[in-house]
Every structure is written in structure tokens, then in C-alpha cells.
Write a structure and sequence with these properties.
The structure holds three protein chains of three kinds. By secondary structure, chain A is α+β, with helices and mostly antiparallel strands. Chain A has helices spanning about 1-20, 25-50, 55, 80-85, 115-120, 130-140, 145-155, 195-205, 225-235, 250-260, 260-295, 295-305, 310-345, 355-380, 385-390; strands spanning about 60-65, 75, 90-95, 110-115, 125, 140-145, 160-165, 170-180, 190-195, 215, 215-220, 245-250. In chain A, strand 7 (about 160-165) and strand 8 (about 170-180) form a beta hairpin. In chain A, helix 2 (about 25-50) packs across helix 13 (about 310-345). Chain A is elongated. The two termini of chain A are about 40 Å apart. Chain B is α/β, with parallel strands linked by helices. Chain B has a single domain (about 10-230), classed as 3-Layer(aba) Sandwich (Rossmann fold). Chain B contains seven helices and ten strands. Chain B has a six-stranded mixed β-sheet with strand order 6-7-8-3-9-10, sandwiched between helices. Chain B has a four-stranded antiparallel β-sheet with strand order 2-1-4-5, covered by helices on one side. The longest helix of chain B has 18 residues, at about 185-200. The two termini of chain B are about 30 Å apart. Chain C folds into two domains: about 5-50 and about 245-390, no CATH class; about 65-235, no CATH class. Chain C contains twelve helices and 15 strands. In chain C, helix 1 (about 5-15) packs across helix 10. Chain C is elongated and about 95 Å long. Chain C starts with 5 loop residues before the first helix and ends with a helix. The chains are: A alpha+beta, B alpha/beta, C alpha+beta. Chains in contact: A-C, B-C. Chains A and C meet through helix 2, helix 10 and helix 11 of A and helix 2, strand 4, strand 5, helix 8 and strand 14 of C.
Chain lengths: ~400, ~240, ~400
Amino acid sequence: MRCNRWAADMFIFKLLLKNAFRHKLRTALTLFGLVVALAAFGLLRTIVGAWYAGVEGSSSTRLVTRSAISLTFPLPLNYAQRIKGVDGVAAISWSNWFGGVYITERNFFPQFAVEPVSYLALYPEYRLTADERLAFLRDRQGAIVGRKLADKFGWKVGDQIPLRGTIYPGTWTFNLRGIWDGAEAKTDESQLLFHWDYLNESIRKRFGNRADYVGVYIVGINEPQNAALISQRLDAEFKNSRAETLTETESAFQLSFVSMSEAILVAIEAVSYIIVVIIMAVMANTMTMTARERLAEYATLKALGFAPSFVVKLLFGESLLIALLGGLAGLALTLPLAAAFGSAAGTLFPAFHVTPLTMALQLLAALIVGAVAAAWPAWKMSRIDIVQGLRHVA
Amino acid sequence: MTANALDLPLIRIRELSKSYQRGGQHIPVLLDIQLDVMAGDFIALMGPSGSGKSTLLNLIAGIDQPSSGRIEIGGIDIASLSEGQLADWRARNVGFIFQFYNLLPVLTAFENVELPLLLTDLSARQRRVHAQAALEMVKLDDRMDHYPNELSGGQQQRVAIARALVSDPTLIVADEPTGDLDRHTGQEVLSLLDELNRNLGKTIVMVTHDPKAAERAHRMVHLDKGVLVDEVQPLGG
Amino acid sequence: MKFIPASYIARNLWVRRVTTLLTAGGMALVVYVFATVLMMSEGIRATLVATGQPDNVIALRKGAGAEINSAVERAQAAILESLPGIATDAAGRPLISKEPVVLNNLPKRGSGKPSNVTVRGTTERGLQLRPQVQMVEGRMFRPGTSEIITGRAIARGFQGAGLGETLRFAGRDWTVVGVFDAGRTGFDSEIWGDAEQMLQAFRRNAFSSVVFRLADASQFEAIKAALEADPRMTVELKPETQFYAEQSEALAKFISILGTALSVIFSIGAIVGAMITMFAAVASRVGEIGTLRALGFRRGAVLLAFLGESLLLSLVGGLLGLAAASLMQTVNISTTNFQTFSELAFQFKLTPTIAWQTIAFALFMGLVGGFIPAWGAARLKIVDCLRAA
């Protein structure tokens, strides 16, 4: 009994396979379209995901404190002492966005002036050798960069890196003292960090009253579950002062950047679903044509006594088979495609990899396309009049 | 078309052969055919399936080219024409009638009949006049604006005949014109062909396997395995 | 060469409506994406370019790409005020405005998500320098007060920015006494208040930029050269139109590159669809092809007929997609401009050029998709067609 059932299923499967490739050209074209569409879908999702990479790289034990007005307003250096005193704060560091240009605007990458010892303590995921760390700490004019950034520009320890300041005018030169490797795949390796003191000294000399101001404070906490509470306490400390603060978790901070480009992200996501709809239309077209051509065959099957549901199953089966093949191939194509895109975009996207969720969605999309495409033709075919169908010489 | 003296044949076929290459095989279909057809003749090509009668018709009609030999129609050896020249020649000289009518389903009866005239330089108004005349001749002018799927088999064939006539060709080729029609309708169609031949002097070459249909022709030409076997004058004359 | 009638081509598309619609629909979607992206890019450019007045000049610190990165000291500003060649208003005062510009992180209406909004300290003359700005509700703010006016897009999009509402920032409450319309330019996304009040509130003692109008626009180069030769000056001058054009470049370019890449990828799907449809069309009409050829129509005519069918199909898709895209013109959209780091509201702008480009793109897809099947149709032998019919 069981053996028969298996044999019947195998027969059906073989039938589906044969039918799918009867019209080789059409099936090949449909597969091609499917592969391209699904690979594009996967790539777009990966791009959107990469945009959120900064968020993923955040730690739940870090808070970011900035001016309540906007990120473009600095905070006084003397806030550091008071922040340390707030209940729940375990560590503190600070950083200024430098915004310099390396040769041309095209070579954009983030540069921060940081308080080195405390900053590196707060970011243990930036792994440096002991020697490099020491060399960096010792050299006021030193800088460290992430591996990805170093690879992109071919920098070696000991190189001199010139930056043209836009916020802090002039040409600034740094000595590359170390290259860090991220502890995890999602760790940012596309930044340049240098001494905050070096920046501050220079500012004091040239624009006296602008000195001793930081861009943001990075606050380390030991109780991630109390992040909201500690943030509120911190902000309360500076309420009604000259510079009010806004403290949030690092991931919320990163998210605020993402939401700036929200319109674009929403558009890209929408577009990635549009392409699935496009390919659905193409596939539906194919299945409709196939069904129309096989009218006589389906009528014959019905006349022979096969239930209408069998015809429906055949059509669905064929459609799903093609869709699945296309889905798997599309998935396989996405990986090298993403790798190529990632290396081309380089430092623009610190982390660029295809997630398991994306791959699952691709397969799901393929199956949905296969099912929807066959729906209407299958329904029509199941209801054909035997006589009508047999008369129809395709 | 050169002026034709009554004693020179319209169609002169000499040493005509046709064979196909299928895979590595060399398959002969027609072998060394000689045939004369006078202007105004009505001949039936007959033979069992595979005898090459349809191939011979195709060659005479200029829609296929022989492997060797000459086909002189109206003094022109069409076997030596290029594809483009052949197409132009057909447009001016041949009217087609097929077993399954071969009307374009998205064009009305009128538009189907008008089709060959699009290959000429006639104006739209002139085309209309000619097409209407052709439809009147087959007595279907009242159904001009119907689509083929709104007409019966016999009516469709009559539209096809009107189309075959409309550019006033010298030669009409018909491939199994009654093959898809019942006896009665088939007879109607054959009468029509007869009329065209007698009253308008159209030369007709018809392939058929139906002896009743063949009776309407002046001559019957038999083919078997690619060779002419005999020529018979039917009793009807 | 004589052509196969157009009615034959068009009616064949109609007869297989479902297939035609599905294929054209796929193309329409691709075209929609293509057109929308171009319209977005154009909208950003148009908004920013229109922001600049042809006779206005803006002074920024050398090397600063945006107003928020720039600082013009009072002393420098004073030197600019005394420049010869500045136009004067009806009362004879020089048309020059010294403006501090800051970014304020404010929550949006609805989502509550914060975004950076440009806050500009300006004067009565600042308003005169921007004739495209018209008050549509309320009135201009009074100098020396904590009154502000907001651009249309901000009034609509941000909490507390509407007429009569209050915004709180820099330790003060600011009352919105007016809303202005800046004629679909960048100023629609700004908040304006009294320059000196802003300097105080944000504890600044340097302006961000200085804007003035030239009495004679052709004098620009001369004035610029003279100024930059002066060693005391750390500012550079730019025509306002150029300044704003540069502000849109990065964003507009980014969007159009992304969009074009996407459209190209999508077009593959649509072309595949067209190819499948046309192959099937040829296959189902083999008998008709044979008949047409027998009647005397050339191979070229057959090729053009099927190519024409594919082009007509893509034209339908193209027009549908363009129509859908043109509806986007009613949508208001905003994003953060990377260069200025602040909110920019803009519209989708459809120009005749974009319309032609879109249709051309659609036809191109039809051409590529239809060519091989049409070629195949033209290559068929007459006798094979008639036999297969």
C-alpha cells in the first residue's frame, strides 16, 4: 500500500518535471526572470539591512548623551564629572565628529576625536594588539583605523594620513599607530579615531572660546535593564542649564540616523516588493499560456476519470516546481552579488551580509509567486467542460 | 506578364526535382517532373498521401523552391527568382485557397479580402472598390464586416476565394479546397471555382484526393512517389 | 516594402487581453519605478535650485560646504556690509542679512520621530532678499521677541509648529505667529526667527552666513576677487543659485544612481515577460505568418509586425506606468539632505524630459524583448508554417 503511494507520487513528480521542461524556451526564460527578480529582492533587503547595521553594532550597555537642541550643538567638557556622579553610570568617554575629507569627498568615512583610554575601554570589540594600543596612546598625533578602512586605502601602520577639515578648518595629519579588527562580523571597522586632546589644543590656539566642548558623551552602564531610568536621571541633572542634554541607548541613537533617510529606505523596501509583484505577473502569464495550450490534455484527463482536483494539482505542482528552482538559483546568485556590492560600496556600509531571514523570505517569495501565478489558470482549468476541451485543437 | 498566344503553355515545368535533407538523410519528394498547363486550364493534382502533390503545388505557387529544374510561368522561370522577387511575383500572379481557409481571425471578411491589395499601390478607395467587387462575386458582400469566427466553413472558404481573386491573378492554386466542408457546401465551392475558370478565364491548379471534386476539373494529373503516372481527361471535360 | 496593417497588430493584442495586460502590467511597474525615481531626483534639484535668487550672493567661511559648518565673525560681517555694489531697498538701506543657522532636533507630527530642522535667524531685509517667500497665515515675527514663523512643510509636518502653537528649544518658548510659503523651495523646510534673539538663545557670537543682493549682478566676479585678495577675510562668496545647486547634488545623484540601477534590474524581469509573450504569440500564429508570406508579404514585414506588436505592448505599459507615476506629484515627501544634515521637503516633479525618457525606456524594453521572437518569426519557411497550421 505504502509502496504504491510512493510510486504514484514519484510518477506525478516526474510528470511535473517533464511538463515543466516541455517548453524549454519558455521555462528557461521564466526561470531567468525569477532568478534575477529574487536575487534583486535579496540584494535590496540586504541593502536595507546594512543601513541598520549601525544599530546592530550597538551595545545595550552604552548610552549616548547629546545636546537636546540637536547633534550639531556641543556639550561642555565639565559635564563629564557630573555625569560620572549620576547613579548607574559606570564609565564615561567623549567624542567629537570631525567630518574631514580624505583627498576627495568620495572617500567618505567617519572620523572621531575621542578620549582614547576611556573610549577603547567602552568599545572592547575594537581589538588592537597591545603594542599598537600603547603606540596610539603615546602619540598625541596618532590615529587608529578599522581593518576594512585600512584595506580600502591600503594603509599600513606608520603611514601618515592627511585630512582636510570642514568643521575644523585646515589640513590635519595623523600617524597611523594601529589597525583594529572587530570582535564580530557586525562590528564597525570603517572608522578613524584620534586624540580628543589633540583637537582641543588646536582649537584653543585658534578659536579660544570654542575649546573644551565635546560632541557626545558615551556613557557605560552595568544595568542594561535600567537604561531608560538612568537616561532620565542623567538628563534631569542638566535640565534648565545652559546646555540641556538628551540621553538615549546607543541603538536608539543609531536608529535616529537611520530614520533620517527613512523616506528612502521605505522606498527601497517598497520597491523590493514591487519586483516580486512584477515577476508574479510574468509567471502568471506563463502559467496561463501553459494552461491554455494544455486544454485538450486536461480535458482528456478529466474524461479518463481523473478528478478536477488532479488537474489543479498538476498546474500548481508545475508552477511551484519552476518557482522553487528559480528561488534556489536566485538565492545562490544573491550571495556573490551581495559580496560584490559590499566590496564596491566599501566603507559606506560597515557590515554587509545576507541574513538567513532574507534567504528564507526569498524562498517564501518564490513559493508565493508560484502559487499565485497558478491560481487563476488552475481554477479555470478545473472547471473546463470535457467536450469543449477535447474539441479544442490547440 | 507577357501576352500569351493560345498555343504556348502558361506553365511549363521541365526536369523538376525536389528533395529534403532530414538529419543526414536525403529524401526525394519529386523526381524529374515535366508538365504543361495552358492558360485557362483547370487541373487537379491527385495521388496518395506522400505522393508529392502538395509539394508540386507549392512549387508552382512559388512558396517553395525546387532542388533542380525549371518552372516557367508566363515566360518567367520562377525557380531562378530570389526570395524577394518571388514574393513580389506571388503578390501579382497567384491567388491562394487553403483547406482550412487561412483567414486572419482578427480581420473582418472585408479586411481579409483587402489584404493582397495592400501589396499594391492602390489607394484606399480603389482597394475598397476592388474588395467589394470580389465579395459580391462570391455573394458575401452583406457579410463584409463579420469576423471569420462569425461565418460558417463554406462562407469562410468563399471569403478566401474572394481574397484569391481580388488582385486579379493569372493563377489560382487551391490545396484541398473542399477538404473541411460537407458535400453540399463543397459542391457550392467547386461551382464557384468552375465559374471563375469559365467566365473569368482563371487558370486553376487544384490538389485534391476527392474524386468528385476532381471531376469538376478539365484534366487530372496523377502522382505517385514523386513521379507523374498518367494524365486522364475526365468525362466532364 | 509593404507593411502588414496596424489593425492586425493592435487587434492581436486585444484578442489575448489577459496576457497583454499581465505583460504590460509588469512593464508598467518597472516604468513606474523608473519614472518616480527620476521625478524624485528632479524634485530635489528643483526645490533647491529654486531656493537661490539670481542676484543674491551668500558668504560662508572658506571650505565650509554647508551653513551649519560655517562661521562668519561679526567683524567679517561688518566688512561685508560695507562692500560697494550692494543693492539697496526702497528706504536706501543695504539689502544684506546676517544670519545664524542652527539645526534643531524636533519630533514630527504623527510618528513622533525626531528630525533635524533648520532654524534661521533673519531680519526684515532677509525676507526682502527672498521674494519667493510669502506669508500665508499670520504675520512676520517682531524683532527682539521670541516669535517665530515656520515654513509650510514644517508647520504641517512637525509638532508644535503650526500657527498659534509653541515650540520649546534653547531654554525658551517660541510662539509661531505666522506660516510662510516659499514657493516649493528649500525655505519651506525652515523655521525663521529674529537673528539677534537666535544668537543669544544658542549662545553664538558668530553668524553662519551673510546674504546680500548685488546692485549689478555682473559685478560678482570683481567683488569676489577683491574680497578674496583681502588677507583679513576668511569667507568666500558664492552666487546663491550655485550654492543651493551644490547642496542638492549629492542627494539627487545618489537617488538617481540607485534608481537607475534598480530600474535596470527590474527591466530584465519585464523584458523576460515581453519575450515570453511574444514567443507565444509567434507560436500561436504560425499559420497566419505562412499565409501572409504566401500572399507576398516580405520577411521584413513580418519582423516589423511582431516588433510593432511588442513595441505597442510596451507603449501601453509605459503609458500606464507614467500615468501612475504622475499621480505621485500629489505626494509630499521629505528626507534628510546628507549635505546639510537637515530636513528637506520636496515634491515629485514630472518634466517633459522625464516623460520622454520614460516612454523611451518602455519602448526600449519592448524592442529588446520582442526582437528575438520577431526575428524568429521572420526566419520561418512558408511551407513549414502552412504545414504546422
